[in-house]
UniProtKB/TrEMBL annotation, chain A:
Record has Iron-sulfur as a keyword: no
Keywords, alphabetical: Cell membrane, Membrane, Transmembrane, Transmembrane helix
Intracellular or extracellular location(s): Cell membrane
Organism of derivation: Evansella caseinilytica
Family classification: Belongs to the cytochrome ubiquinol oxidase subunit 2 family.
Entry's transmembrane regions: 6-34, 55-74, 80-98, 118-144, 164-186, 198-219, 234-253, 260-279, 299-322
Membrane topology reported for the UniProt record: Multi-pass membrane protein
Main location: membrane
GO cellular component annotations of the record: plasma membrane
Record flagged with keyword Membrane: yes
This protein's name: Cytochrome d ubiquinol oxidase subunit II
InterPro entries documented for this protein: Cyt-d_oxidase_su2
Automatic annotation (TrEMBL), chain B:
Chief place of localization: membrane
GO MF annotation, one: electron transfer activity
Listed name of the protein: Cytochrome d ubiquinol oxidase subunit I
Lineage: Bacteria, Bacillati, Bacillota, Bacilli, Bacillales
This protein's record includes keyword Metal-binding: yes
The entry's keywords: Cell membrane, Electron transport, Heme, Iron, Membrane, Metal-binding, Transmembrane, Transmembrane helix, Transport
Coiled coil: none
Assigned protein family: Belongs to the cytochrome ubiquinol oxidase subunit 1 family.
Membrane-protein topology: Multi-pass membrane protein
Organism: Evansella caseinilytica
Length: 340, 447
């Protein structure tokens, strides 16, 4: 494999990691807001708090890793995306900032306030919507370069069916991923009430998520035919994704093996995300930028890869410890251990 | 009216974000160390007061860290949004430490999550203490890595530009540039110092408000002893920073000192004002001191501003920033040393009101010194974004709407700042030390 491909594979893997952990977080925010509005809050509150409190910061770092990493491996992305995305990027930052800090304020500091919960719930859906536009833009046609200036075409972006399709796909996926994880977590916590409610949410959002996936797939053919055809060539990855989805939904429906069901959801998104990404190559921004002409110099590439491997050696044991203490520790999950 | 200028607005927005982030970043670097020291004292002396201190500091710390994380995320993204040309060049040469910084964040975030929720989980207290060490390492490492990036902006090396093409890139040479040693030690030590002083100021404030509990006295003593060590360290390393400037960025040093004529036995100018004819008035001049700061002896020749091209001279008002930082540095060092001496001689009373008030003032003052130091360092690099290689105007975005973003972020930071203060106050007001000691059955007389 060339350095270029190693680089993009590393980054894409971290983006996938962010997709999963952030979806759980975003969806949890929405559910916690929604259940509060419908007075079912007492059912889900503990589950959501107990899982999120120790990990929210880790979630954020996945994103930071991605956007710092991409400038390291592909410095030209800073130029193209940086110039084009000033406004949507700033909006995403503001939403992320409000969400992160108000989560901490509500959890560690003050008593619960309706405003905090609202912010937390609303940003949970708005952030995936705004972040997903980056993928939309990468398909080409939304950004132009003229007289050496890069510009985002807002009319094109907001008027495009494809772009709205991606936004919807992002939102329903967030809800589905989140609900299936929280179902599993509630079952570990032996919390029957929460389990029942969350399982229902998981089932509600399962079909919309796959439906939107299929719709966006076909909308893409109108947007970027080359990418679409590459995806058709990689049809088997999407078949794996569909099969994993079927297994996951079946298990949740049958009230069995929630853990395996969540792993299947992860497989579903893994296959689809990597299928999408692999078919997108070599373009980072169609048609202006490929992974080859935007790549950093070779010395830097090697240094970054070495740093990455060293970093992983440090991270994997630490993440394992975190999961052991908070995800797989039955007493903690069941709420028998004291917090701060 | 004004014409829209993306460069100007990008500068303002960067300044705004960094000035806000650096408050929380500084605490984020320093407070973990103070928590570690307190928890360690609790174990060594078997004194639950110190353990509780660590626990309460950690609880407040989560709130400030949250703001640090979100504003850091903002500056990290904004660097690409506002300075795309700069980041494109920087990615090629200085991407490595930025990338490594994210691992430091990861490491810190993971252990912070664990640390906060495992106070009562282990039988052995040492085990829980061990969990704070990765946090201290992660926090200090992130300061180290990001400071190497800033050092690179001041003393770029580790690449060649031939006909506009970048060649011979050496990421390690870029990272360990001449500015790195003095800068990173100065930044890290000043973060420790500031954090110690802010925690000390809180303790002093409680004593002034009439809290009689020995807990606050212990907290004040612990923070002041630490602060004395860090303050002396900061000042010594600050001297090294001056020597670095003399060698690599003489125009910054000359501007900071309103030093116009190249000469030896140069004197250090404190305060004062500058007349139209570049004459220094009402200033305190310390003979030879500038030569000593620059080169360690009175014979050192210090280049004056008249010998630099006019368009490469940074704004001269940074003089006040430099003075403010040094003045506060001396104040903090003297004050913490005074406290330590008063406390050490048992018959003197270190907890008298003037000293306590002076400590209370020291907390915010330390933060002002941090801000002043950064403004001095960054504005003093003008007009360059990469010293001698790329100017600020070349690095900036060409986008429209940067002005709108500036206003949006101004509102965002105002909201975050206010809420953060409100939440912290409420958090500790609702659960004062006395009540918590009572609740945890830690007697007033303990040790
Ligand atoms: C509590 C904070 C604090 C205190 C008390 C001091 N400093 Fe400082 N100083 C900083 C906080 C700081 C900083 C925020 O960390 C800076 C800004 C950029 C940097 O590298 O460090 C800095 C920069 C900085 C620079 C510029 C370095 C450069 O641009 O490369 C010099 C020459 C000094 N300092 C010198 C001193 C001296 C002689 C002090 C005497 C007591 C002093 N500082 C106290
Ligand atoms: C241009 C300069 C800077 C950039 C781009 C930057 C970037 C960041 C980012 C992306 C984060 C969020 C990390 C996360 O998600 O956990 C962050 C937080 C933080 N930054 Fe900054 N930073 C800068 C300046 C500084 C400085 C000067 C210091 C130290 C003095 C510092 C220390 C920290 C600390 C301690 C945190 C909290 C980290 C944590 O607890 O995870 N940063 N910064
Ligand atoms: C980390 C702590 C830092 C602080 C507190 C800081 C502070 C500042 C300040 C106050 C300015 C405004 C200067 C002016 O208006 O003339 C500035 C400018 C800037 N800084 Fe730094 N700086 C830091 C480090 C960095 C780092 C590590 C980077 C890049 C990776 C960076 C990138 C910039 C850029 C692009 C500008 C705009 C150019 C300029 O006006 O000089 N800064 N910074």
């Amino acid at each position: 494999m060339s350095y270029e491909v190693v680089g993009i594979a590393v980054l894409w893997t971290f983006l996938y990691g962010y997709l999963i952990v952030a979806s759980v977080d975003f969806g949890a925010g929405f559910f916690s807001y929604y259940t509060k509005r419908t007075n079912k809050n007492h059912i889900t509150h503990n589950i959501i708090q107990r899982y999120l409190s120790p990990v929210w910061e880790v979630t954020n770092v996945f994103l930071v890793f991605f956007f710092i990493g991409i400038v390291g491996f592909f410095p030209s992305t800073a130029y193209y995306y940086g110039t084009a995305l000033l406004v949507p990027g700033s909006v995403a930052i503001i939403l992320l900032a409000l969400r992160g800090s108000y989560y901490a304020f509500a959890t560690y500091g003050a008593k619960d306030s309706p405003l905090y919960t609202f912010l937390y719930g609303a940003t949970g859906l708005l952030i995936p919507a705004s972040l997903s536009t980056v993928l939309t833009i990468s398909e080409g046609g939304f950004v132009i370069k003229e007289n050496g200036n890069v510009r985002l075409l807002y009319g094109e972006l907001f008027g495009s069916l494809y772009s709205w399709g991606v936004v919807l796909l992002a939102i329903v996926s967030v809800l589905f991923i989140s609900a299936s994880f929280l179902t599993y977590y509630a079952s570990r916590a032996k919390d029957e009430g929460a389990l029942k409610l969350l399982r229902k949410y998981a089932l509600i959002w399962s079909f919309p998520s796959i439906l939107m996936g299929i719709i966006v797939f076909f909308l893409l053919s109108k947007r970027n035919l080359e990418h679409y055809q590459n995806m058709v060539d990689l049809w088997w990855m999407f078949a794996v994704s569909l099969a994993a989805f079927a297994i996951a939904t079946y298990l949740i429906w049958k009230k069995r093996n929630y853990g395996l069901a969540f792993i299947m959801v992860m497989v579903q998104y893994f296959a689809a995300f990597f299928g999408y990404g692999a078919a997108h190559l070599p373009y980072l921004l169609y048609p202006y930028l490929t992974i080859y002409d935007g790549f950093t110099n070779e010395t830097m590439a090697i240094a970054l890869i070495i740093a990455f491997i060293a970093g992983l050696l440090l991270l994997i044991p630490s993440l394992y410890l975190l999961m052991r203490l908070f995800l797989f520790d039955a007493d903690y999950v069941e709420g028998k251990k004291e917090a701060m | 009216m004004f014409e829209y200028d993306p460069v100007l607005y990008s500068r303002l927005l960067t300044t705004l974000t960094l000035a806000f982030h650096v408050i929380f970043a500084t605490l984020g670097v320093g407070i973990p160390l103070m928590i570690a020291i307190a928890e360690w004292m609790g174990i060594r002396r078997n004194d639950p007061h110190y353990t509780l201190m660590a626990r309460r500091w950690a609880r407040g710390f989560v709130v400030t860290v949250a703001v640090g994380v979100v504003t850091g995320t903002a500056i990290g993204l904004q660097l690409s949004l506002l300075w795309p040309n700069f980041m494109q060049a920087a990615g090629h040469t200085i991407g490595l430490p930025m990338f490594m910084e994210t691992f430091a964040f990861f490491f810190e975030a993971i252990f912070l999550g664990i640390y906060l929720y495992t106070w009562d989980r282990f039988k052995s207290k040492v085990k829980h203490f061990l969990l704070v060490i990765p946090i201290v390492i992660g926090a200090t490492a992130s300061a180290f890595f990001i400071t190497t990036v800033n050092s690179f902006m001041n003393a770029p090396q580790g690449f060649n530009i031939i006909d506009g093409v970048l060649t011979d890139v050496s990421p390690l040479a870029a990272m360990f540039n001449p500015a790195t040693p003095s800068k990173m030690s100065h930044v890290i030590l000043s973060s420790y110092l500031t954090s110690a002083f802010i925690l000390g100021a809180i303790a002093a404030f409680h004593i002034l408000k009439g809290s009689k509990h020995v807990y606050h006295k212990k907290a004040l003593h612990l923070t002041m002893v630490s602060a004395a060590v860090f303050a002396i360290g900061t000042a010594l390393v600050g001297d090294l920073s001056g020597k670095y400037l003399h060698e690599y960025q003489p125009e910054k040093l000359a501007a900071a000192e309103w030093h116009f004529e190249t000469e030896e036995k140069a004197s250090l100018v404190l305060g004062g004002i500058l007349t139209d004819g570049n004459e220094v008035r009402f200033a305190l001049e310390i003979p030879y001191a500038l030569s000593i700061l620059a080169g360690g002896s009175a014979d050192t020749i210090v280049t004056g501003l008249n010998d630099f091209p006019e368009d490469e001279v940074p704004p001269l008002w940074i003089h006040y920033m430099f003075d403010l930082m040094v003045f506060i540095g001396i104040y903090l060092a003297a004050l913490s040393a005074l406290f330590v001496v008063l406390h050490w001689r048992k018959k003197w009373n270190a907890f008298n009101r003037p000293v306590l008030w002076a400590v209370v003032a020291g907390g915010p003052a330390a933060m002002f010194a941090i801000e002043a130091g950064w403004i001095f360092a960054e504005v003093g690099r003008q007009p360059w974004i990469l010293n001698g290689v790329m100017t600020v105007a070349e690095g900036a975005t060409t986008s429209a709407h940067v002005d709108m973003m500036l206003y949006l972020f101004l509102v965002l930071y105002a909201i975050l700042g206010v809420t953060c203060v409100v939440v912290l106050r409420r958090m500790f007001k609702q659960n004062p030390v006395e009540a918590e000691l009572e609740k945890r059955n830690i007697s007033h007389q303990a040790v």
